[in-house]
């Protein structure tokens, strides 16, 4: 990836202005969010060694460099969405970043939704731990249309003979 390319983390900056210098070790992440963005970008660029360098010993307990490298290469990366941050700023020693990493693997679109904990030590921000966030189930707000109910399109036909003709019930 070139420094003038858009950063994979979707910050709106170039790679050279955003995650590139952090991954290369030329700059330290100023916030927990900046480190999270750089970690995502390291998957996209295949620099999984940065994942190891940017983690605490606790963060490395379940880290498998070979598996991470394989996942990094096999996935088609679509972007990073930062949902929320708690702490992780200039005056903090800990921070939490909730995010979604979007990618396609084995032909299937994936939404990796996680809350990651970061700790700042003498060397800067480090990844400590992450926990998957379960997606909330979709709740239908309108009543379910029965097969024999009038079609909501207003045709006067039964739903099963109109808009529900090809619907899976």
Task: Walk me through what this model shows.
The protein has 169 residues and is α+β, with helices and mostly antiparallel strands. Helix content is 22%, strand content 28%. The protein has five helices and four strands, in the order H-H-H-H-H-E-E-E-E. It has a four-stranded antiparallel sheet. A hairpin with a 2-residue loop joins strand 3 and strand 4. Helix 2 packs across helix 5. The chain is elongated, with a radius of gyration of 22 Å. The relative contact order is 0.13.
Query: How far do the termini sit from each other?
Result: 47 Å
* Rg calculated over all Cα atoms: 22 Å
What's the order of the H and E elements? HHHHHEEEE
Q: What's the helical proportion of residues?
A: 10-25%
Shape label? elongated
Overall number of strands: 4
Strand order of the largest sheet: 1-2-3-4
The parts where pLDDT drops under 50 for at least 5 residues are: none
Classify the secondary structure makeup into a structural class.
alpha+beta
Output the number of helix runs.
Answer: 5
How do the strands and helices of this protein lay out in sequence?
Elements: H1 20-23, H2 32-45, H3 49-53, H4 57-60, H5 65-74, E1 76-87, E2 94-105, E3 108-121, E4 124-132
Antiparallel strand pairs: 1-2, 2-3, 3-4
In short:
With 169 residues, this protein is an alpha+beta fold. 22% of the residues lie in helices and 28% in strands.
């Amino acid at each position: 990836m070139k420094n003038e390319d858009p950063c994979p983390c979707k910050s709106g900056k170039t790679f050279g202005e955003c995650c590139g210098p952090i991954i290369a070790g030329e700059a330290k992440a100023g916030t927990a969010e900046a480190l999270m963005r750089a970690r995502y970008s390291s998957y996209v660029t295949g620099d999984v060694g940065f994942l190891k360098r940017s983690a605490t010993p606790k963060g490395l307990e379940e880290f498998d460099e070979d598996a991470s490298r394989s996942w990094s290469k096999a996935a088609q990366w679509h972007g990073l969405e930062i949902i929320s941050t708690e702490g992780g700023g200039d005056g903090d020693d800990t921070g939490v970043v909730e995010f979604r990493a979007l990618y396609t693997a084995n032909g299937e679109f994936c939404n990796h939704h996680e809350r990651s904990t970061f700790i700042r030590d003498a060397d800067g921000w480090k990844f400590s731990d992450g926990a998957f966030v379960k997606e909330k189930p979709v709740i239908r707000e309108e009543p379910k249309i029965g097969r024999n109910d009038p079609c909501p399109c207003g045709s006067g036909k039964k739903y099963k003979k109109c808009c529900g003709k090809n619907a899976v019930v």
